[in-house]
Amino acid sequence: MELVFVGLGKMGRSILEGVLAAEFLPPQEIGIVERDAAYTSELAEVYGVEPLVHADIASAKRALVAVQPKQFTALAENLAYPGVGYISIMAGVTTRRLAESLGTRRVVRAMPNLAATIRKSTTALTGPREAREAGDLEFAAGLFKTVGDAYELPERLFDAFTGMAASAPAYVALVAEALADGGVKMGISRKDALTFAADVLIATGELMRFKHPAVIKDEVASPGGTTIHGLAALEEAGVRSALYRAVEEATKRGRELGEKG
Ligand SMILES: NC(=O)c1ccc[n+]([C@@H]2O[C@H](COP(=O)([O-])OP(=O)(O)OC[C@H]3O[C@@H](n4cnc5c(N)ncnc54)[C@H](OP(=O)(O)O)[C@@H]3O)[C@@H](O)[C@H]2O)c1
């Protein structure tokens, strides 16, 4: 068995679906373990993969741990098998804690975001030398590329990455909702305002692949025009510093949660 998924919630299922759609692994090389055996069998039938129990992980090459961080403590002793490489997506669980709990340094810490559900995640990866030497980091990069993009990042930047990229779908959603509210305030229907907000955010994200955000801003804002008046209102309201602070606060909170273990 090449890979066992442990925990098939929102994230585990999204990654499994990405792996199957990209044919990264054949279904017969994939096993799944959920908390409840009947649910494991039900899901295995849906996806055409192998239903397993925790003890089967012993004979797998790798396991993806996709349970909640608070569920990990109870689970760890049923997971620690020699010769298995572990890939965790649990927020705030460090490679050090993974290695201590699982009794191996073949551990990869990954941080995807909610966009994995539509295969557009920006995923950060890190792991110690042993994980690199065993090919676990390379395997994890391939795995997460089935649900978006994957980048290696030093672990000291993981809390910052969590505070910025992993939390960003929520920040951007808040901006989108407020933008739509502005449209509604000016008389546009709620339905149209939400469509326009989504279209504009997607298009701006695409433009950022070719242009720096400052260039996009300058190109839209003509002298004495509408946009520069809108921008001035945003600056007065401190939108820039609010976003700096959001990333800073979320990073600090990630650090606190990691320290609590
Ligand atoms: N959601 C996000 O946007 C996001 C982003 C980045 C990282 N993450 C991380 O991804 C992980 C999963 O998140 P999620 O949103 O997918 O959570 P979730 O929907 O709660 O999924 C966790 C799944 O694991 C199952 N589980 C619990 N204990 C288990 C055990 N001992 N053996 C096998 N399966 C077990 C749970 O079953 P029960 O329901 O029966 O408990 C549940 O189906 C978390 O650690 C989170 O920090 C999430």
Structure description:
By secondary structure, the protein is of the alpha/beta class. The protein folds into two domains: 3-153, NAD(P)-binding Rossmann-like Domain (Rossmann fold), CATH 3.40.50; 168-257, ProC C-terminal domain-like (ProC C-terminal domain-like fold, Orthogonal Bundle). It has twelve helices and eight strands. It has helices at 10-21, 37-47, 69-76, 95-102, 129-133, 136-145, 158-166, 168-185, 190-207, 213-220, 226-236, 239-260, and strands at 3-6, 30-33, 50-51, 62-65, 85-88, 107-111, 121-126, 148-152. The protein has an eight-stranded mixed β-sheet with strand order 3-2-1-4-5-6-7-8, with helices on both faces. Strand 1 (3-6), helix 1 and strand 2 form a beta-alpha-beta unit. Helix 7 crosses helix 12 (239-260). It is elongated, with a radius of gyration of 21 Å. The two termini are 30 Å apart. It binds NADP nicotinamide-adenine-dinucleotide phosphate (NAP). The site of NADP nicotinamide-adenine-dinucleotide phosphate has 24 residues, from helix 1 and helix 3.
Number of beta-strand segments: 8
Amount of beta strand:
5-15%
CATH architecture of the largest domain: 3-Layer(aba) Sandwich
Order of helices and strands: EHEHEEHEHEEHHEHHHHHH
- Distinct small-molecule ligands in the complex: NADP nicotinamide-adenine-dinucleotide phosphate
Please, how many helices? 12
Write the layout of secondary structure elements.
Elements: E1 3-6, H1 10-21, E2 30-33, H2 37-47, E3 50-51, E4 62-65, H3 69-76, E5 85-88, H4 95-102, E6 107-111, E7 121-126, H5 129-133, H6 136-145, E8 148-152, H7 158-166, H8 168-185, H9 190-207, H10 213-220, H11 226-236, H12 239-260
Parallel strand pairs: 1-2, 1-4, 2-3, 4-5, 5-6, 7-8
Antiparallel strand pairs: 6-7
Helix pairs in contact: 7-12, 8-9
The structure holds NADP nicotinamide-adenine-dinucleotide phosphate.
